[in-house]
Structure of Imidazole glycerol phosphate synthase hisHF:
Amino acid sequence: MPSFKVSLLDYGAGNVRSVRNAIFAAGFEIQEITEPGQILEAKAIIFPGVGAFGSAMRVLKEKGFDEPLRQYLAQNRPFLGICLGMQTLFESSDEHEPGKPPIPGLGVIPGKVIKFDETKMTVPHIGWNGRILHQQSPVFENVNNDDDVYFVHSFYAPVTAENKEWVLSSTTYEDERFISAVQKGCVVATQFHPEKSGPTGLKVMRAFLEAVENGTLGSTKPLEIDETATTHLTKRVVVALDVRTNDHGDLVVTKGDQYDVRENQKEGVVTGRGGVRNLGKPVALASRYYQEGGDEIAFLNITSFRQGVIEDMPMLQVLEEASKNIFVPLTVGGGIRSYSDPASGQTWSALEVASRYFRAGADKVSMGSDAVDAAEALIASGGKKTGETSLETISRVYGVQAVVVSIDPKRVYVASQDSTDKKHVVVELEGDQLGPNGERFCWYQCTAKGGREERDICAVTVARCSEALGAGEIMLNCIDMDGQCKGFDIALMKAVSEAVTIPVIASSGAGKPEHFTDVFKRANVQAALAAGMFHRKEVEIEAVKEHMRSNGIRARTCS
Ligand code: 1PR
Protein backbone atom coordinates (compact mmCIF):
# COMPACT_ATOMS: atom_id res chain seq x y z
CA MET A 1 0.00 0.00 0.00
CA PRO A 2 1.61 3.31 -1.04
CA SER A 3 2.37 5.74 1.79
CA PHE A 4 0.89 8.77 0.05
CA LYS A 5 -1.99 9.90 -2.13
CA VAL A 6 -1.28 11.55 -5.46
CA SER A 7 -2.42 15.19 -5.53
CA LEU A 8 -4.12 15.83 -8.85
CA LEU A 9 -4.21 19.37 -10.14
CA ASP A 10 -7.29 19.34 -12.36
CA TYR A 11 -8.19 22.85 -13.45
CA GLY A 12 -11.27 21.67 -15.31
CA ALA A 13 -10.24 21.46 -18.97
CA GLY A 14 -10.19 18.35 -21.09
CA ASN A 15 -9.98 14.67 -20.35
CA VAL A 16 -8.39 14.11 -16.98
CA ARG A 17 -10.31 10.88 -16.44
CA SER A 18 -7.61 8.88 -18.24
CA VAL A 19 -4.92 10.36 -16.02
CA ARG A 20 -6.96 9.34 -12.99
CA ASN A 21 -7.41 5.85 -14.40
CA ALA A 22 -3.69 5.53 -15.13
CA ILE A 23 -2.88 6.54 -11.53
CA PHE A 24 -5.35 3.92 -10.25
CA ALA A 25 -3.86 1.35 -12.62
CA ALA A 26 -0.47 2.04 -11.03
CA GLY A 27 -1.99 1.18 -7.63
CA PHE A 28 -2.18 4.71 -6.20
CA GLU A 29 -5.04 6.78 -4.82
CA ILE A 30 -5.86 10.37 -5.64
CA GLN A 31 -6.49 13.50 -3.65
CA GLU A 32 -7.94 16.41 -5.62
CA ILE A 33 -6.34 19.81 -5.27
CA THR A 34 -9.24 22.21 -4.88
CA GLU A 35 -7.63 24.87 -2.65
CA PRO A 36 -4.29 26.66 -3.12
CA GLY A 37 -3.37 25.66 0.45
CA GLN A 38 -3.26 21.96 -0.53
CA ILE A 39 -0.40 22.50 -2.96
CA LEU A 40 2.36 22.97 -0.41
CA GLU A 41 1.06 20.01 1.61
CA ALA A 42 1.16 17.59 -1.33
CA LYS A 43 3.55 14.62 -1.42
CA ALA A 44 3.45 14.37 -5.22
CA ILE A 45 1.57 16.52 -7.70
CA ILE A 46 0.42 15.42 -11.14
CA PHE A 47 -0.60 18.30 -13.38
CA PRO A 48 -2.24 17.14 -16.61
CA GLY A 49 -2.57 20.25 -18.72
CA VAL A 50 -5.15 20.10 -21.48
CA GLY A 51 -6.36 22.94 -23.69
CA ALA A 52 -4.64 26.19 -24.51
CA PHE A 53 -1.67 27.75 -22.70
CA GLY A 54 -3.31 31.15 -22.15
CA SER A 55 -6.50 29.79 -20.63
CA ALA A 56 -4.60 27.26 -18.48
CA MET A 57 -2.41 29.98 -16.97
CA ARG A 58 -5.38 32.28 -16.48
CA VAL A 59 -7.30 29.60 -14.57
CA LEU A 60 -4.24 28.78 -12.42
CA LYS A 61 -3.98 32.46 -11.55
CA GLU A 62 -7.70 32.95 -10.91
CA LYS A 63 -7.73 29.97 -8.56
CA GLY A 64 -4.64 31.24 -6.76
CA PHE A 65 -2.70 28.07 -7.68
CA ASP A 66 0.18 29.76 -9.52
CA GLU A 67 2.21 31.15 -6.60
CA PRO A 68 2.01 28.05 -4.35
CA LEU A 69 2.91 25.95 -7.41
CA ARG A 70 6.01 28.07 -8.08
CA GLN A 71 7.03 27.65 -4.42
CA TYR A 72 6.40 23.89 -4.54
CA LEU A 73 8.56 23.56 -7.64
CA ALA A 74 11.31 25.78 -6.18
CA GLN A 75 11.43 23.40 -3.21
CA ASN A 76 12.25 20.53 -5.60
CA ARG A 77 9.20 18.50 -4.58
CA PRO A 78 7.84 15.57 -6.65
CA PHE A 79 5.93 16.84 -9.68
CA LEU A 80 4.80 15.34 -12.96
CA GLY A 81 3.48 17.78 -15.56
CA ILE A 82 1.83 16.36 -18.67
CA CYS A 83 1.67 18.09 -22.08
CA LEU A 84 0.46 21.62 -21.29
CA GLY A 85 1.50 20.80 -17.72
CA MET A 86 5.06 20.75 -19.09
CA GLN A 87 4.67 23.81 -21.30
CA THR A 88 3.40 25.98 -18.42
CA LEU A 89 6.77 25.41 -16.66
CA PHE A 90 8.41 27.62 -19.33
CA GLU A 91 8.61 31.41 -19.28
CA SER A 92 6.02 32.07 -21.97
CA SER A 93 4.21 30.69 -25.02
CA ASP A 94 3.19 31.93 -28.42
CA GLU A 95 -0.16 30.24 -27.77
CA HIS A 96 -2.40 33.07 -26.67
CA GLU A 97 -5.69 34.50 -27.83
CA PRO A 98 -5.36 36.68 -30.94
CA GLY A 99 -5.20 40.36 -30.10
CA LYS A 100 -4.49 39.69 -26.43
CA PRO A 101 -1.02 40.01 -24.84
CA PRO A 102 0.88 36.79 -24.07
CA ILE A 103 0.37 35.43 -20.56
CA PRO A 104 3.58 34.47 -18.73
CA GLY A 105 4.11 30.85 -17.73
CA LEU A 106 5.35 29.62 -14.36
CA GLY A 107 8.89 30.55 -15.47
CA VAL A 108 10.64 27.57 -13.88
CA ILE A 109 12.42 26.54 -17.11
CA PRO A 110 14.14 29.14 -19.34
CA GLY A 111 12.66 29.51 -22.81
CA LYS A 112 9.55 30.11 -24.81
CA VAL A 113 7.06 27.62 -26.23
CA ILE A 114 6.58 28.18 -29.97
CA LYS A 115 4.42 26.77 -32.78
CA PHE A 116 5.42 24.17 -35.36
CA ASP A 117 5.63 25.77 -38.78
CA GLU A 118 2.54 24.62 -40.68
CA THR A 119 4.03 25.77 -43.98
CA LYS A 120 6.62 23.00 -43.60
CA MET A 121 4.81 20.20 -41.78
CA THR A 122 1.45 18.82 -40.76
CA VAL A 123 0.33 20.53 -37.57
CA PRO A 124 -0.65 19.43 -34.89
CA HIS A 125 2.02 16.78 -34.35
CA ILE A 126 -0.37 13.92 -33.55
CA GLY A 127 0.63 10.36 -32.98
CA TRP A 128 3.30 8.01 -31.70
CA ASN A 129 6.92 9.08 -31.79
CA GLY A 130 10.20 8.11 -30.11
CA ARG A 131 12.51 9.70 -27.51
CA ILE A 132 16.23 10.36 -27.46
CA LEU A 133 17.38 10.16 -23.87
CA HIS A 134 19.56 13.00 -22.53
CA GLN A 135 19.62 11.72 -18.94
CA GLN A 136 19.24 8.39 -17.26
CA SER A 137 16.19 8.60 -15.00
CA PRO A 138 14.17 6.22 -12.84
CA VAL A 139 11.11 7.46 -14.75
CA PHE A 140 12.21 5.70 -17.94
CA GLU A 141 13.84 2.76 -16.19
CA ASN A 142 11.27 0.13 -17.21
CA VAL A 143 10.69 1.15 -20.82
CA ASN A 144 12.73 0.38 -23.91
CA ASN A 145 14.40 3.40 -25.46
CA ASP A 146 12.70 2.72 -28.76
CA ASP A 147 9.16 2.40 -27.35
CA ASP A 148 6.94 5.05 -28.96
CA VAL A 149 4.79 7.39 -26.90
CA TYR A 150 1.73 9.44 -27.82
CA PHE A 151 1.96 13.14 -28.62
CA VAL A 152 -0.70 15.64 -29.55
CA HIS A 153 0.38 19.28 -29.72
CA SER A 154 0.89 22.22 -32.05
CA PHE A 155 3.32 24.10 -29.79
CA TYR A 156 6.68 22.89 -28.55
CA ALA A 157 9.67 23.89 -26.44
CA PRO A 158 12.95 23.87 -28.39
CA VAL A 159 16.17 22.66 -26.76
CA THR A 160 18.37 25.72 -26.02
CA ALA A 161 21.71 26.30 -24.27
CA GLU A 162 19.76 27.81 -21.34
CA ASN A 163 17.39 24.88 -20.76
CA LYS A 164 19.72 22.02 -21.80
CA GLU A 165 20.29 20.83 -18.22
CA TRP A 166 16.51 20.26 -17.87
CA VAL A 167 16.16 18.05 -20.93
CA LEU A 168 15.36 14.43 -20.10
CA SER A 169 14.51 13.47 -23.66
CA SER A 170 14.12 15.12 -27.03
CA THR A 171 12.11 14.07 -30.06
CA THR A 172 12.23 15.14 -33.67
CA TYR A 173 9.30 15.95 -35.90
CA GLU A 174 10.30 16.58 -39.51
CA ASP A 175 13.34 18.89 -39.09
CA GLU A 176 12.39 20.23 -35.66
CA ARG A 177 13.88 18.93 -32.41
CA PHE A 178 11.74 19.57 -29.36
CA ILE A 179 11.80 18.72 -25.68
CA SER A 180 9.72 15.61 -25.08
CA ALA A 181 10.48 15.33 -21.36
CA VAL A 182 12.23 17.39 -18.68
CA GLN A 183 13.63 16.49 -15.31
CA LYS A 184 15.63 18.37 -12.72
CA GLY A 185 15.71 16.76 -9.30
CA CYS A 186 12.17 15.73 -8.45
CA VAL A 187 10.46 17.96 -11.02
CA VAL A 188 9.51 15.92 -14.07
CA ALA A 189 7.29 16.73 -17.02
CA THR A 190 6.47 15.17 -20.36
CA GLN A 191 5.25 16.66 -23.62
CA PHE A 192 3.77 13.27 -24.47
CA HIS A 193 0.77 11.76 -22.69
CA PRO A 194 1.80 8.78 -20.52
CA GLU A 195 -1.89 8.10 -19.86
CA LYS A 196 -2.46 7.70 -23.61
CA SER A 197 0.77 5.89 -24.45
CA GLY A 198 -0.49 2.35 -23.90
CA PRO A 199 1.52 -0.07 -21.74
CA THR A 200 4.66 2.07 -22.20
CA GLY A 201 2.96 5.13 -20.75
CA LEU A 202 1.58 3.19 -17.81
CA LYS A 203 5.10 2.00 -17.02
CA VAL A 204 6.33 5.63 -17.05
CA MET A 205 3.51 6.70 -14.73
CA ARG A 206 4.11 3.81 -12.36
CA ALA A 207 7.89 4.36 -12.37
CA PHE A 208 7.41 8.03 -11.44
CA LEU A 209 5.09 7.17 -8.54
CA GLU A 210 7.26 4.31 -7.27
CA ALA A 211 10.36 6.51 -7.42
CA VAL A 212 8.50 9.08 -5.27
CA GLU A 213 7.58 6.29 -2.85
CA ASN A 214 11.18 4.97 -2.70
CA GLY A 215 12.79 8.42 -2.55
CA THR A 216 14.82 7.69 -5.70
CA LEU A 217 13.13 10.12 -8.09
CA GLY A 218 15.98 12.63 -8.18
CA SER A 219 18.72 10.10 -9.00
CA THR A 220 19.42 11.06 -12.60
CA LYS A 221 22.65 10.89 -14.61
CA PRO A 222 23.51 12.89 -17.76
CA LEU A 223 24.08 10.75 -20.85
CA GLU A 224 26.31 11.27 -23.86
CA ILE A 225 23.95 12.21 -26.67
CA ASP A 226 24.27 12.07 -30.39
CA GLU A 227 23.12 15.53 -31.52
CA THR A 228 22.20 14.16 -34.95
CA ALA A 229 19.97 11.32 -33.75
CA THR A 230 16.38 11.56 -34.97
CA THR A 231 13.04 9.95 -34.20
CA HIS A 232 10.09 9.46 -36.54
CA LEU A 233 6.35 9.76 -36.19
CA THR A 234 4.59 6.47 -36.89
CA LYS A 235 1.54 6.18 -39.11
CA ARG A 236 -1.50 5.37 -36.97
CA VAL A 237 -3.89 2.46 -37.36
CA VAL A 238 -7.29 3.58 -36.07
CA VAL A 239 -10.30 1.38 -35.37
CA ALA A 240 -13.81 2.84 -35.64
CA LEU A 241 -16.80 1.48 -33.81
CA ASP A 242 -20.10 2.66 -35.26
CA VAL A 243 -22.44 2.42 -32.30
CA ARG A 244 -26.24 2.48 -32.25
CA THR A 245 -29.19 0.96 -30.47
CA ASN A 246 -30.54 -2.12 -32.19
CA ASP A 247 -34.20 -3.10 -32.53
CA HIS A 248 -34.09 -4.71 -29.05
CA GLY A 249 -32.85 -1.52 -27.41
CA ASP A 250 -29.26 -2.75 -26.86
CA LEU A 251 -26.31 -0.55 -27.66
CA VAL A 252 -24.29 -2.48 -30.25
CA VAL A 253 -21.38 -2.00 -32.59
CA THR A 254 -22.71 -2.17 -36.11
CA LYS A 255 -21.21 -1.74 -39.52
CA GLY A 256 -22.69 -0.41 -42.68
CA ASP A 257 -22.43 -1.23 -46.29
CA GLN A 258 -22.25 2.20 -47.91
CA TYR A 259 -23.74 3.46 -44.63
CA ASP A 260 -26.64 1.02 -44.62
CA VAL A 261 -26.33 -0.88 -41.34
CA ARG A 262 -29.25 -3.27 -41.79
CA GLU A 263 -28.88 -6.84 -43.01
CA ASN A 264 -30.11 -7.25 -46.57
CA GLN A 265 -33.48 -8.90 -46.80
CA LYS A 266 -33.42 -12.46 -48.11
CA GLU A 267 -33.75 -12.72 -51.85
CA GLY A 268 -37.34 -13.09 -52.97
CA VAL A 269 -38.75 -12.80 -49.45
CA VAL A 270 -40.71 -9.63 -48.82
CA THR A 271 -40.03 -9.14 -45.14
CA GLY A 272 -39.07 -5.48 -45.11
CA ARG A 273 -35.50 -4.50 -44.22
CA GLY A 274 -33.41 -6.75 -42.02
CA GLY A 275 -32.24 -6.03 -38.48
CA VAL A 276 -29.31 -3.85 -37.50
CA ARG A 277 -26.05 -5.80 -37.86
CA ASN A 278 -24.72 -6.60 -34.41
CA LEU A 279 -20.95 -7.05 -34.31
CA GLY A 280 -20.47 -6.91 -30.57
CA LYS A 281 -20.50 -4.79 -27.45
CA PRO A 282 -18.71 -1.43 -27.70
CA VAL A 283 -16.52 -1.59 -24.57
CA ALA A 284 -15.53 -5.25 -24.97
CA LEU A 285 -14.64 -4.75 -28.62
CA ALA A 286 -12.70 -1.55 -27.96
CA SER A 287 -10.74 -3.25 -25.16
CA ARG A 288 -9.82 -6.05 -27.56
CA TYR A 289 -8.51 -3.52 -30.08
CA TYR A 290 -6.45 -1.80 -27.36
CA GLN A 291 -4.87 -5.14 -26.41
CA GLU A 292 -4.22 -5.96 -30.05
CA GLY A 293 -2.33 -2.72 -30.71
CA GLY A 294 -4.89 -0.26 -32.10
CA ASP A 295 -3.29 3.19 -31.97
CA GLU A 296 -6.55 5.01 -31.47
CA ILE A 297 -10.21 4.13 -31.08
CA ALA A 298 -13.17 6.11 -32.39
CA PHE A 299 -16.73 5.60 -31.17
CA LEU A 300 -19.26 7.04 -33.61
CA ASN A 301 -22.81 7.39 -32.39
CA ILE A 302 -24.45 6.96 -35.76
CA THR A 303 -28.02 7.66 -34.73
CA SER A 304 -27.24 10.77 -32.73
CA PHE A 305 -29.25 13.00 -35.04
CA ARG A 306 -32.38 11.37 -33.65
CA GLN A 307 -31.81 12.35 -30.04
CA GLY A 308 -29.89 14.76 -27.87
CA VAL A 309 -26.51 13.69 -26.69
CA ILE A 310 -27.10 14.99 -23.20
CA GLU A 311 -29.72 12.27 -22.77
CA ASP A 312 -27.34 9.82 -24.33
CA MET A 313 -26.32 8.19 -21.09
CA PRO A 314 -25.38 4.84 -22.69
CA MET A 315 -22.74 6.50 -24.87
CA LEU A 316 -21.35 8.45 -21.91
CA GLN A 317 -21.21 5.20 -19.94
CA VAL A 318 -19.40 3.50 -22.82
CA LEU A 319 -16.71 6.16 -22.64
CA GLU A 320 -16.47 6.03 -18.86
CA GLU A 321 -16.07 2.25 -18.93
CA ALA A 322 -13.74 2.19 -21.94
CA SER A 323 -11.36 4.75 -20.43
CA LYS A 324 -10.84 2.53 -17.37
CA ASN A 325 -8.89 -0.04 -19.34
CA ILE A 326 -7.95 1.62 -22.60
CA PHE A 327 -4.89 3.85 -22.51
CA VAL A 328 -4.77 5.08 -26.11
CA PRO A 329 -6.70 8.09 -27.45
CA LEU A 330 -10.47 7.81 -27.62
CA THR A 331 -12.51 9.88 -30.05
CA VAL A 332 -16.26 10.23 -29.84
CA GLY A 333 -18.47 11.47 -32.64
CA GLY A 334 -22.14 11.89 -33.42
CA GLY A 335 -24.37 14.63 -32.11
CA ILE A 336 -21.72 17.21 -31.21
CA ARG A 337 -23.88 20.27 -31.80
CA SER A 338 -26.10 22.62 -29.85
CA TYR A 339 -29.29 20.98 -28.77
CA SER A 340 -32.68 22.01 -27.36
CA ASP A 341 -34.71 19.57 -25.33
CA PRO A 342 -38.30 20.00 -26.58
CA ALA A 343 -39.73 18.67 -23.29
CA SER A 344 -37.93 20.99 -20.86
CA GLY A 345 -37.11 23.77 -23.31
CA GLN A 346 -33.53 23.66 -22.06
CA THR A 347 -30.77 24.41 -24.55
CA TRP A 348 -27.27 22.98 -24.48
CA SER A 349 -24.44 24.53 -26.46
CA ALA A 350 -22.16 22.33 -28.55
CA LEU A 351 -19.40 23.26 -26.11
CA GLU A 352 -21.45 21.89 -23.20
CA VAL A 353 -22.18 18.70 -25.12
CA ALA A 354 -18.48 18.27 -25.94
CA SER A 355 -17.52 18.97 -22.32
CA ARG A 356 -19.77 16.12 -21.18
CA TYR A 357 -17.95 13.76 -23.50
CA PHE A 358 -14.50 15.01 -22.50
CA ARG A 359 -15.38 14.53 -18.84
CA ALA A 360 -16.60 11.01 -19.61
CA GLY A 361 -13.20 10.05 -21.06
CA ALA A 362 -13.04 11.29 -24.66
CA ASP A 363 -9.79 12.85 -25.83
CA LYS A 364 -11.25 14.20 -29.04
CA VAL A 365 -14.73 14.95 -30.27
CA SER A 366 -15.62 14.44 -33.90
CA MET A 367 -18.21 16.55 -35.69
CA GLY A 368 -19.98 15.72 -38.91
CA SER A 369 -23.21 17.51 -39.78
CA ASP A 370 -22.45 20.63 -37.78
CA ALA A 371 -19.14 21.11 -39.60
CA VAL A 372 -20.94 20.98 -42.96
CA ASP A 373 -23.34 23.71 -41.74
CA ALA A 374 -20.42 25.78 -40.46
CA ALA A 375 -18.53 25.43 -43.75
CA GLU A 376 -21.58 26.51 -45.75
CA ALA A 377 -22.06 29.52 -43.48
CA LEU A 378 -18.38 30.46 -43.78
CA ILE A 379 -18.55 30.38 -47.57
CA ALA A 380 -21.83 32.36 -47.56
CA SER A 381 -20.28 35.06 -45.38
CA GLY A 382 -17.29 35.41 -47.69
CA GLY A 383 -14.97 33.80 -45.14
CA LYS A 384 -16.00 35.91 -42.14
CA LYS A 385 -15.86 33.88 -38.94
CA THR A 386 -18.42 34.49 -36.21
CA GLY A 387 -16.36 32.95 -33.43
CA GLU A 388 -19.51 31.14 -32.40
CA THR A 389 -19.62 27.93 -34.40
CA SER A 390 -19.18 24.67 -32.50
CA LEU A 391 -15.80 24.23 -34.11
CA GLU A 392 -14.57 27.61 -32.95
CA THR A 393 -15.99 27.45 -29.42
CA ILE A 394 -14.77 23.92 -28.67
CA SER A 395 -11.30 24.39 -30.14
CA ARG A 396 -10.87 27.69 -28.29
CA VAL A 397 -11.37 25.98 -24.95
CA TYR A 398 -9.96 22.50 -25.55
CA GLY A 399 -7.40 23.24 -28.27
CA VAL A 400 -7.58 22.34 -31.96
CA GLN A 401 -6.08 18.91 -31.29
CA ALA A 402 -9.27 17.90 -29.47
CA VAL A 403 -11.54 18.63 -32.45
CA VAL A 404 -11.90 16.26 -35.40
CA VAL A 405 -14.18 16.86 -38.37
CA SER A 406 -15.66 13.72 -39.85
CA ILE A 407 -16.61 14.16 -43.51
CA ASP A 408 -19.11 11.80 -45.18
CA PRO A 409 -18.86 12.46 -48.92
CA LYS A 410 -20.19 10.52 -51.89
CA ARG A 411 -18.99 10.65 -55.46
CA VAL A 412 -20.81 12.71 -58.08
CA TYR A 413 -19.49 11.58 -61.47
CA VAL A 414 -18.89 14.27 -64.09
CA ALA A 415 -17.63 14.25 -67.65
CA SER A 416 -14.78 16.73 -67.35
CA GLN A 417 -12.57 18.67 -64.94
CA ASP A 418 -14.53 21.93 -65.39
CA SER A 419 -18.02 20.37 -65.10
CA THR A 420 -18.89 22.23 -61.89
CA ASP A 421 -17.66 25.67 -63.04
CA LYS A 422 -14.97 25.54 -60.36
CA LYS A 423 -17.62 25.50 -57.64
CA HIS A 424 -16.39 22.09 -56.47
CA VAL A 425 -12.97 20.47 -56.64
CA VAL A 426 -13.17 17.86 -59.39
CA VAL A 427 -10.66 15.00 -59.39
CA GLU A 428 -9.69 12.40 -61.91
CA LEU A 429 -10.62 8.86 -60.89
CA GLU A 430 -7.72 6.53 -60.11
CA GLY A 431 -6.57 3.76 -62.43
CA ASP A 432 -9.22 2.27 -64.70
CA GLN A 433 -12.20 3.37 -62.58
CA LEU A 434 -15.06 5.01 -64.46
CA GLY A 435 -18.49 6.36 -63.51
CA PRO A 436 -21.68 4.53 -64.63
CA ASN A 437 -21.73 6.46 -67.92
CA GLY A 438 -18.01 6.17 -68.52
CA GLU A 439 -17.16 9.40 -66.62
CA ARG A 440 -13.46 9.81 -65.77
CA PHE A 441 -13.98 12.50 -63.13
CA CYS A 442 -15.95 13.13 -59.98
CA TRP A 443 -16.39 15.57 -57.15
CA TYR A 444 -17.07 14.51 -53.60
CA GLN A 445 -20.40 15.78 -52.38
CA CYS A 446 -20.66 16.28 -48.63
CA THR A 447 -23.59 14.87 -46.75
CA ALA A 448 -25.04 15.47 -43.30
CA LYS A 449 -26.89 13.14 -40.93
CA GLY A 450 -24.78 10.16 -41.89
CA GLY A 451 -25.39 10.36 -45.64
CA ARG A 452 -29.10 11.14 -45.44
CA GLU A 453 -28.86 14.79 -46.52
CA GLU A 454 -26.88 15.80 -49.60
CA ARG A 455 -25.36 19.27 -49.63
CA ASP A 456 -24.02 21.45 -52.43
CA ILE A 457 -20.48 21.62 -51.05
CA CYS A 458 -17.51 19.38 -51.71
CA ALA A 459 -15.28 17.50 -49.27
CA VAL A 460 -12.21 19.61 -50.09
CA THR A 461 -14.09 22.81 -49.28
CA VAL A 462 -15.50 21.45 -46.03
CA ALA A 463 -12.02 20.29 -45.03
CA ARG A 464 -10.50 23.70 -45.77
CA CYS A 465 -13.26 25.57 -43.94
CA SER A 466 -13.02 23.18 -40.98
CA GLU A 467 -9.31 23.86 -40.69
CA ALA A 468 -9.96 27.61 -40.80
CA LEU A 469 -12.59 27.29 -38.06
CA GLY A 470 -10.42 25.29 -35.67
CA ALA A 471 -10.47 21.59 -36.56
CA GLY A 472 -7.24 19.81 -35.65
CA GLU A 473 -7.79 16.71 -37.78
CA ILE A 474 -10.02 15.40 -40.58
CA MET A 475 -11.60 11.93 -40.51
CA LEU A 476 -12.23 11.37 -44.19
CA ASN A 477 -14.85 8.76 -44.98
CA CYS A 478 -16.23 7.87 -48.40
CA ILE A 479 -19.78 6.50 -48.65
CA ASP A 480 -19.08 4.75 -51.98
CA MET A 481 -16.20 2.77 -50.47
CA ASP A 482 -17.63 2.14 -46.97
CA GLY A 483 -17.77 -1.58 -46.21
CA GLN A 484 -16.65 -2.55 -49.72
CA CYS A 485 -13.19 -3.93 -48.71
CA LYS A 486 -11.76 -2.65 -52.02
CA GLY A 487 -9.32 -0.14 -50.55
CA PHE A 488 -9.44 3.54 -49.64
CA ASP A 489 -10.52 6.18 -52.15
CA ILE A 490 -7.00 7.37 -52.99
CA ALA A 491 -8.11 10.27 -55.22
CA LEU A 492 -10.22 11.67 -52.38
CA MET A 493 -7.47 11.15 -49.81
CA LYS A 494 -4.95 12.94 -52.03
CA ALA A 495 -7.27 15.84 -52.85
CA VAL A 496 -8.12 16.59 -49.22
CA SER A 497 -4.70 15.93 -47.67
CA GLU A 498 -3.09 18.26 -50.23
CA ALA A 499 -5.61 21.00 -49.43
CA VAL A 500 -5.08 21.20 -45.65
CA THR A 501 -2.11 21.31 -43.26
CA ILE A 502 -3.84 19.40 -40.44
CA PRO A 503 -3.62 15.59 -40.24
CA VAL A 504 -6.02 13.48 -42.28
CA ILE A 505 -7.30 10.05 -41.21
CA ALA A 506 -8.16 7.96 -44.28
CA SER A 507 -11.36 5.98 -43.76
CA SER A 508 -13.75 3.63 -45.58
CA GLY A 509 -12.99 0.65 -47.74
CA ALA A 510 -10.09 -1.20 -46.10
CA GLY A 511 -10.22 -4.95 -46.58
CA LYS A 512 -6.60 -6.11 -46.31
CA PRO A 513 -3.21 -4.91 -44.99
CA GLU A 514 -2.12 -3.84 -48.50
CA HIS A 515 -4.80 -1.14 -48.48
CA PHE A 516 -3.12 0.60 -45.54
CA THR A 517 0.31 0.49 -47.11
CA ASP A 518 -1.16 1.75 -50.36
CA VAL A 519 -2.88 4.79 -48.86
CA PHE A 520 0.17 5.71 -46.74
CA LYS A 521 2.43 5.51 -49.79
CA ARG A 522 0.18 7.41 -52.18
CA ALA A 523 -1.53 10.08 -50.08
CA ASN A 524 -0.18 12.33 -47.36
CA VAL A 525 -2.46 10.92 -44.66
CA GLN A 526 -1.23 10.45 -41.12
CA ALA A 527 -3.57 7.67 -40.08
CA ALA A 528 -5.84 5.09 -41.65
CA LEU A 529 -9.01 3.71 -40.15
CA ALA A 530 -10.90 0.50 -40.61
CA ALA A 531 -13.96 -1.00 -39.04
CA GLY A 532 -15.56 -4.03 -40.73
CA MET A 533 -12.43 -6.04 -41.48
CA PHE A 534 -11.36 -5.86 -37.81
CA HIS A 535 -14.85 -6.49 -36.41
CA ARG A 536 -15.31 -9.55 -38.60
CA LYS A 537 -11.82 -10.76 -37.57
CA GLU A 538 -10.74 -11.01 -41.18
CA VAL A 539 -7.45 -9.18 -40.54
CA GLU A 540 -5.55 -8.52 -37.31
CA ILE A 541 -4.17 -5.11 -36.42
CA GLU A 542 -0.69 -6.58 -36.08
CA ALA A 543 -0.89 -8.04 -39.60
CA VAL A 544 -1.58 -4.52 -40.91
CA LYS A 545 1.39 -3.13 -38.99
CA GLU A 546 3.68 -5.96 -40.10
CA HIS A 547 2.80 -5.22 -43.71
CA MET A 548 3.45 -1.51 -43.18
CA ARG A 549 6.84 -2.20 -41.57
CA SER A 550 7.89 -4.57 -44.31
CA ASN A 551 7.15 -1.75 -46.75
CA GLY A 552 9.23 0.80 -44.85
CA ILE A 553 6.32 2.54 -43.09
CA ARG A 554 6.82 3.05 -39.35
CA ALA A 555 4.13 1.53 -37.12
CA ARG A 556 3.96 1.43 -33.34
CA THR A 557 4.95 -1.77 -31.64
CA CYS A 558 2.68 -2.57 -28.74
CA SER A 559 4.93 -3.81 -25.92
O1 1PR B 1 -23.30 14.29 -38.02
O2 1PR B 1 -21.95 15.10 -36.13
O3 1PR B 1 -23.95 13.71 -35.71
O4 1PR B 1 -21.89 12.75 -36.71
C1 1PR B 1 -22.36 11.53 -37.15
C2 1PR B 1 -21.18 10.60 -37.24
O5 1PR B 1 -21.66 9.28 -37.46
C3 1PR B 1 -20.25 10.94 -38.37
O6 1PR B 1 -18.92 10.72 -37.97
C4 1PR B 1 -20.63 9.93 -39.46
O7 1PR B 1 -19.50 9.57 -40.23
C5 1PR B 1 -21.10 8.75 -38.64
N1 1PR B 1 -22.17 7.98 -39.30
C6 1PR B 1 -23.46 8.35 -39.43
N2 1PR B 1 -24.15 7.36 -40.05
C7 1PR B 1 -23.30 6.37 -40.32
C8 1PR B 1 -23.60 5.11 -40.97
O8 1PR B 1 -22.72 4.28 -41.22
N3 1PR B 1 -24.86 4.88 -41.30
N4 1PR B 1 -20.95 6.01 -39.97
C9 1PR B 1 -22.05 6.75 -39.86
C10 1PR B 1 -19.86 6.41 -40.41
C11 1PR B 1 -17.97 5.58 -41.33
C12 1PR B 1 -16.87 5.00 -40.59
C13 1PR B 1 -16.69 3.58 -41.00
C14 1PR B 1 -15.66 3.61 -42.09
C15 1PR B 1 -14.82 2.39 -42.18
N5 1PR B 1 -19.18 5.28 -40.68
O9 1PR B 1 -17.05 5.10 -39.24
O10 1PR B 1 -16.39 2.97 -39.85
O11 1PR B 1 -16.30 3.87 -43.33
O12 1PR B 1 -15.60 1.30 -42.50
P1 1PR B 1 -14.98 0.03 -43.25
O13 1PR B 1 -13.56 -0.10 -42.80
O14 1PR B 1 -15.79 -1.13 -42.79
O15 1PR B 1 -15.11 0.31 -44.72
P2 1PR B 1 -22.84 14.02 -36.66
User: Anything to note?
Assistant: The chain is about 25% helix and 25% strand. Residues 198-214 form the longest helix (17 residues). Confidence is low (pLDDT under 50) at residues 266-272. The chain has two domains: 6-222, 236-550.
